[in-house]
Amino acid sequence: MENKVILFADSSVDLSEQLRERYNVHILPIHVILNDKVYEDGVDVTSQDIFDNYYKNKTLPKTAAINFEDIRSALKPYVDDGYEIVYISIGSALSSSYRNSCLAAEELGGKVYPIDSCSLSSGAGLLVIEAAERIAKGMSAKQVAEEVSALNQKNHASFILDTLEFMKAGGRCSAVAAFGANLLGLKPCIKVFNEKNGAMAPTKKYRGKFEKVIFEYIDETLASYENIRSERIFLTYSTAPESLVEKVAQYIRDKGIFDEILITTASGTISSHCGPCTMGILFMTE
Q1: Rounded to 5 degrees, what angle do the CA atoms 141, 20, 77 make?
Q2: Residue 271: pLDDT over 90
Q3: Alpha-carbon gap, residue 12 to 90, rounded angstroms
């Protein structure tokens, strides 16, 4: 008998088209407002478009959460066809997407089960995969939502920035702090705090060229956790030279910890806040 459960997520989960197909996940794009025009993240605007516009016009886009009506309209046909829906959104500390999905769930008569990822980017993507695997085993949407939500505290996301220019432009750090960091060659590591529903904060500042400190960051991050789950790790980046991405991926492979390294690019929603040559590793523990 067909398990009539379907999986949705917003575009900030940063899954490649191949992964979306592999795990049968439907994506709703977050809105990106650039030069007074509204785009759909990952559909008609990319991170590189956002960076190019910034360097040309010195303006960053605004992002808008997927509103209640967009979510309701997307999900209603599946509910009408007898499906239950698991919906995973960016952490509620970062966006109103989760709240809007809860409102849509109420409107659709309890057939939608929202999950606050308490994370962002492929940190949320890890939970999407967990949900997809449970759906494939025939679990109900309610059970999937309960089990995946319980994994939040075992989900670890962080990334390292090459520049604070975009944080400064977005009002997330002072001009003085950005100038000082750039002058000293500091590369801050930003961690996502699941217990704070996805809020972010700097945890360490590395000194040196990005091509050097990225490996220090990987060593220290992996060493700081016990019982790392071996199934997969995401290596997610905004923009970076392909040679560096492959070198970092090989460095992780050589550690022999993970069965699979999933390399993905960050959506415009994520990249607009952290800038080019941002890179992070995202994984789970037991």
Answers
A1: 50
A2: no
A3: 6
H/E stretch holding 200 reads: strand 199-207
Q: Which amino acid is at 42?
A: G
**Dihedral pair phi/psi, residue 201, rounded to 5°:** -160, 150
Give residue-wise pLDDT tens across range 111-133.
999 999 999 999 999 999 999 99
In sequence order, which residues have a C-beta less than 8 Å from that of residue 16 and are 6 or more positions away? 262, 264, 265
Identity of residue 280: G
pTM for this structure? 0.90
Closest CA to 15 of 225, 176, 211, 234: 234
How many CA atoms within 13 Å lie on the side-chain side of 19? 24
CB of 7 closer than 8 Å to CB of 26: yes
For residues 83 and 93, is the Cβ–Cβ distance under 8 A? no
Residue 46: which residues within 8 A CB-CB, separation 6 or more? 268
pLDDT tens readout for residues 73-99: 999 999 999 999 999 999 998 889 999
CA-closest candidate to residue 86, choices 142, 138, 12, 30: 142
Beta-bridge partners for 264: 236
- 3-state SS of 77-134 is HHHHCCCEEEEEECCCCCCCHHHHHHHHHHHCCCCEEEEECCCCHHHHHHHHHHHHHH
Q: State both tokens at 60.
A: 């960053």
Helix and strand numbers (H, E) in the chain are 11, 13
pLDDT tier at 50, thresholds 50, 70, 90: confident
Q: Are 113 and 87 in contact (CB under 8 A)?
A: yes
Contacts of 12 (CB under 8 A, 6+ apart): 30, 41, 89, 90, 95, 97, 120, 121, 124, 267, 269, 270
